[in-house]
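hiii, so i know i said id send this last week but things got crazy w the move. better late than never?? heres the sequnce for the chain we talked about at the cafe, plus the structure i predicted for it. fair warning i was half asleep when i ran it
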Amino acid sequence: MTATPEYAARDNRGDNGVRICSTGLTDTRDLPGSVEELADLAVGTLDWTGSVLPALRLLGRRVVPVAELVPDAHAERVCVGSAPVLDRTEIATWVWPEMSDRVPPAAARLSGVLAPARHWRTALTAAVPFARFTNAAIVVPRSVSDRDGFVSTCLIRARQFGVAVLSADENSVRVELEGRSFADSAPVEQTAVSRWVNEVVYEQLLASETPAPSHN
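okay and structure toks below
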């Protein structure tokens, strides 16, 4: 495989608002379990594939990405020395028509984004920006989903944006609303935002000790 000069050996990182939330997400004190435990349960319930990555602050929202490597694209980038690029200004040029053959391939497949929170409005605010280009789901306590008015407030709002709603207690996670699925839909057109998120997720996959294999 021949290296393409336009994107070989780039490593333009820097502080672009990406931060691992080592102490967990905010607004999660009343959740019936840790964010990691709830994310694992939610991914199994939703049948998403990939690794549950550490909670991140992306686009000003704290979320938990679920993703896997794209083997061919990852191998190509390894061959040409193309590390994840986090410079949002540079990535903004990647979607220009004249750049179509000059940028590295997307090497991560984002299965979805989870937003656990004790209040459904907080969770939905975090999840909605990602629902435009990937599966998105919120996880709230069962005590919240069992309240009167939950259907006429949270579920109606979530349905408008295609966001799945899950409720959790100490032992299980239950689907309250199915979200829009990107699994069988046509590929979503890449934007500067979705491509930047993909690069952030790619970096986190490489940093994880055991990234999940791709399921073809």
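btw The first strand starts at residue 19 and ends at 20. thought thatd interest u
miss u guys!!
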